[in-house]
Design brief:
The complex is a heterodimer. By secondary structure, chain A is mostly helical. Chain A is built from 13 helices and no strands. The radius of gyration of chain A is 24 Å and the shape is globular. Chain B is α+β, with helices and mostly antiparallel strands. In chain B, strand 4 and strand 5 form a beta hairpin. Chain B is globular, with a radius of gyration of 26 Å. Classes of the chains: A mainly alpha, B alpha+beta. Chains A and B meet through helix 2, helix 4, helix 6 and helix 11 of A and helix 6, helix 9, strand 10, helix 10 and helix 16 of B.
Chain lengths: 328, 575
């Protein structure tokens, strides 16, 4: 196992470096740079050149590439133009916000997805199965930002202004503007309230996908001989489904987890826009349009690592749940 | 009563709503009471309005509360006047966190601010500013002449790379142009130049005692402006969460003579990138003021009983810039025809619901030298457009509906706009339809913002025919960077204008100090622009804002949205 891990990690190194190289050249060769983005008729070409020099952009691309790569390999990703702080610092400012949002969504999505898929498979072709199928298909095919806007409309605007519900949810932000004056209990409630709508809009789409996978996988397993054997020896249906069938049906879903892990960090971009959530995804997309090269580079480096790690984790989890793979 | 009180600023929408609730229950249309109530309700409302204005909330009850302002973007560069000439940032430098030497009053004449008075030498090349002695940095240090000198020296230092350095370049008189006479008196020597007081209301003074030791080239990357700004203005910086919010507290020691402590206790600037979310936050009272309300959202604000809508003229004009280097666009008759063939008044009506004024030049309608008669210079006239194009040698030779010149070159152009900007996309598409009517083929093209800027500013490539963009006009007329042929290789001379008459006027206007002498020159300049058509000037967009009824005395004008932020107050009943 250790040997396998080392082999996989070693293979990942050139991959990550390759991605970083490609991103570097794509980003730097795109038209426009931080100086051209200032757009001020009072800015003379000399000032623009000075600005480029202050940002270190006056050197040829290959020199900048070597410098960047050299620094990055020693853990120094440079300073962000727009945030005026070390890039790692910027990433670490926004990472927790994104992790909170997508972590909650991921947990919710897997809990409900696995549960719904299992129920559907066990009660195949029942009314429940058909109903849930329609619903999951509905949400699966819906863009998450649109879903987010609809949730805002219903649970923020209509709930508060039209229906006067006792509970409604704020449309944006992570905390209220008077957060710092709240008691500890009220702070927790405030955060939870702000978390609900973005988490739900992110989780709904994922839940739908996971439920579809789970249903298919469970149906396959439930028809196998060992399930029939379990039933035949008189085990209660609950034990058959949750202990024998579910474990086996989970294997393909675990691959999904690996695929969703990078989404934890990046897939929230639209949700972050809609809910004004100060997360990593939006920060990096903005960094691209602001030509904040050091931030874009560090961000893509980080994502490349995440994708590789996600896949690796999925493979390892495979081995954990499936002894056959472990023995090979 | 409290509800009525709350709604009094909501205008007509509220009146209608109150009338409806007062007489609700009956079958509308058939009840005779309906008409009766409809007649009575406005009278009650008018009485209330009058009574409230006659017994307004007394001054000392206006203090308190948190005002939350939200808009789609961050304050780029933060509270660092050396870094940012960005609009939202300069607004906060001028009116919120920092102070300028002077500011403009409503009719745009200079007014004392940090400088309580100034003397100008007879030839207009030497200004002596006498500073107030009661202004303190928010760490307790007094603001004095050394800060002003420091700010001036750094701004004009090329190593600082201040984005608007060209603006100062026209005034600066060598390195020893500034002299600290005593702690509160400073003398500046300038080149003779029009509107020489203008720069001093534009740029916030920065603290020398904190930034004096920072090398100029490191000022742009310094965390001061975004992490720990120390200003001297009416609001003290408290907190900044990037991409999320800025929090400022009222400065209790702000000089009484300049308005004193702001009414609100706290001023919060929130970043909400999605406009639908912004509107929802305004409707659900999460924010008090939505800066930059979209024209198609105005009706919802007007209809909401808890909100009111305000709009003010602004300095921002939308235009389509033409690339005169292209053979299709090199003839000014063609460019003029392109403008003639577009119904700009209708576009203002349709696109921004009339919240805008048709533009004819870069001199805004509020400017003292604005030429009113210019409105008819380039009307909507398809026939005239066709005739001009015929004249210029562009006729439909092969009968495909698109004009060609004698060499067989088709009059086909692309109009670029930045992806995601709906209004600019609409403009490009409307031009496609309307120019199609006169035999010009237009292809609208969406481009990522940074790429578009790169394409149009690159002095060698200039990879565009036309593009939709906006400028914020300055208070003084100076378009040399845009239209002067000496500067044709600079980034913003994208139109590629080469007109000796325009060059001459730009040179003269820049150094004509006396307004009466400058007026005829500026009027002539506007006429030349209408003739040259380097841009198709579309319209000056109004500032459109949605405001919660609890927030009062929100006054804005061409000076900007934040001009009166210290005088905003929150209804004591709904704090």
């Amino acid at each position: 196992m250790t040997k396998y891990l080392v082999r996989r990690l070693a293979g990942a190194v050139p991959l990550v470096l390759g991605i970083a190289t490609v991103v570097f050249f794509v980003v730097t060769l795109a038209p426009g740079d931080p100086a051209s983005l200032v757009l001020n008729p009072g800015m003379t070409p000399e000032v623009a050149d000075q600005m480029r020099a202050n940002y270190g952009l006056d050197q040829p691309v290959h020199v900048r590439y070597v410098k960047w790569m050299g620094a990055a390999l020693t853990g120094n990703f440079g300073t962000s133009h727009t945030y005026r702080r070390p890039v790692l610092d910027v990433l670490l400012t926004f990472l927790p916000n994104t992790l909170l949002l997508s972590g909650c969504a991921l947990v919710l999505a897997f809990m409900f997805g696995i549960f719904l898929g299992t129920v559907q498979a066990v009660r195949q072709y029942s009314l429940v199965d058909r109903g849930v199928s329609v619903l999951t298909l509905f949400f699966y095919s819906m863009p998450s930002f649109w879903l987010g806007l609809m949730l805002i409309l219903v649970f923020s605007f209509f709930a508060r202004n039209v229906w006067h519900w006792p509970i409604w949810f704020p449309a944006s932000g992570m905390t209220s503007v008077d957060y710092e004056f709240l008691s500890t209990g009220a702070k927790v409630v405030d955060r939870l309230k702000h978390l609900v709508l973005p988490t739900v809009s992110l989780a709904l789409v994922m839940t739908a996908g996971i439920a579809r996978y789970m249903r298919g996988s469970m149906l396959e397993v439930i028809q196998q001989d060992f399930v029939r054997t379990a039933r035949a020896k008189g085990l209660p249906e609950r034990t058959v489904v949750f202990k024998h069938a579910l474990r086996n049906a989970l294997i393909p879903v675990i691959t999904l987890l690996g695929l969703y892990l990078p989404v934890l960090f990046s897939g929230t971009v639209f949700i972050e826009y809609v809910f004004a959530w100060p997360g990593l995804g939006k920060t990096l997309v903005d960094a691209i349009s602001l030509r904040d090269y050091p931030l874009v580079m560090a961000g893509s480096f980080f994502f490349a690592v995440m994708v590789v790690m996600g896949n690796l984790l999925a493979d390892v989890l495979y081995a954990v749940v499936d002894p056959r793979i472990r023995h090979e | 009563m409290m509800i009525l009180h709350d709604r009094r600023r909501a205008g007509l929408g509220a009146v209608v709503l109150l009338a409806a609730t007062a007489c609700g229950g009956g079958d509308p249309g058939s009840s005779p009471l309906e008409g009766f109530c409809a007649a009575v309700a406005p009278r009650v409302d008018a009485y209330l309005e009058r009574a409230l204005s006659e017994s307004p909330v007394p001054d000392d009850e206006r203090y308190g509360g948190t005002v939350v302002v939200a808009t789609i973007s961050e304050i780029a560069g933060g509270m660092n006047a050396f870094v940012s000439a960005d609009y939202a940032a300069t607004q906060h430098h001028q009116f919120v966190n920092l102070m300028t030497l002077l500011n403009y009053d409503e009719d745009l004449s200079p007014h004392p601010y940090l400088a309580e008075s100034w003397d100008v030498s007879e030839d207009g090349t030497e200004i002596t500013f006498h500073l107030r002695r009661d202004v303190y940095w928010h760490d307790g240090e007094p603001t004095d002449a050394h800060d002003v000198a420091f700010t001036y020296v750094r701004l004009t230092d090329p190593r600082t790379a201040y984005p608007n350095a060209g603006f100062w370049g026209q005034y600066v008189q060598g390195e020893d142009g500034v002299e600290v006479v005593d702690d509160f008196t400073i003398k500046v020597r300038l080149q003779p130049h029009a509107e020489f007081l203008d720069p001093w209301r534009a740029v916030g003074i920065m603290p020398e005692h904190l930034l004096g030791d920072v090398p100029p080239e490191e000022l742009a990357g310094h965390p001061f402006g975004t992490e720990c700004p120390v200003g001297n203005g009416p609001f003290v910086f408290r907190d900044h969460q990037p991409n999320e919010r800025w929090v400022f507290a009222a400065n209790p020691a702000f000089p009484e003579a300049l308005g004193g402590r702001p009414y609100v206790d706290r001023y919060v600037y929130r970043v909400i990138p999605e406009q639908t979310t912004l509107l929802t936050e305004l409707l659900t009272e999460g924010i008090d003021l939505y800066v930059g309300l979209q024209p198609d959202q105005v009706q919802q604000v007007v209809d909401a009983p808890n909100l009111y809508f305000v709009h003010f003229p602004s300095r921002n004009y939308i235009y389509v810039g033409w690339n005169a280097r292209r053979p299709q666009l090199s003839d000014r008759r063609v460019r003029r025809a392109l403008t003639l063939a577009v119904n700009r008044a209708e576009i203002v009506e349709a696109l921004v619901q009339g919240y805008g004024t048709v533009a004819n030049s870069s001199v805004p309608p509020f400017h003292w030298a604005y030429d009113e008669s210019l409105g008819d210079a380039v009307p909507f006239d398809r026939e005239a457009a066709r005739a001009l194009l015929d004249d210029a040698g562009w006729t439909d030779r092969d009968g495909d509906g698109v004009r060609e010149n004698a060499d067989g070159l088709r009059l086909a152009i692309s109009i670029k706009y930045n992806q995601g900007n709906q209004i600019r996309q609409d403009i490009a598409e409307i031009m496609q339809a309307q120019l199609g009517e006169v035999g010009v083929e237009v292809r609208p093209q969406a481009i990522e913002w940074g790429t578009l800027v790169g394409q149009i500013t690159d002095p060698v490539e200039r990879d565009f025919d036309g593009f939709v963009m906006a400028w914020a006009a300055e208070f003084r007329v100076d378009d040399a960077g845009l239209f002067h042929s000496d500067r044709i290789d600079e980034p913003y001379a994208w139109a590629g204008t080469q007109n000796p008459e325009i060059d001459r006027l730009l040179d003269e206007i820049a150094i004509t100090v006396d307004r009466d002498e400058a007026r005829p020159l500026i009027e002539e300049y506007q006429g030349l622009l209408a003739d040259e058509q380097p841009y198709t000037f579309f319209y000056y967009a109004d500032l459109t804002e949605g405001v919660n009824v609890r927030l009062r005395d929100v006054h804005m004008d061409v000076r900007g949205e934040w001009v009166s932020v210290g005088r905003w107050w929150i209804d004591p009943a709904s704090r």
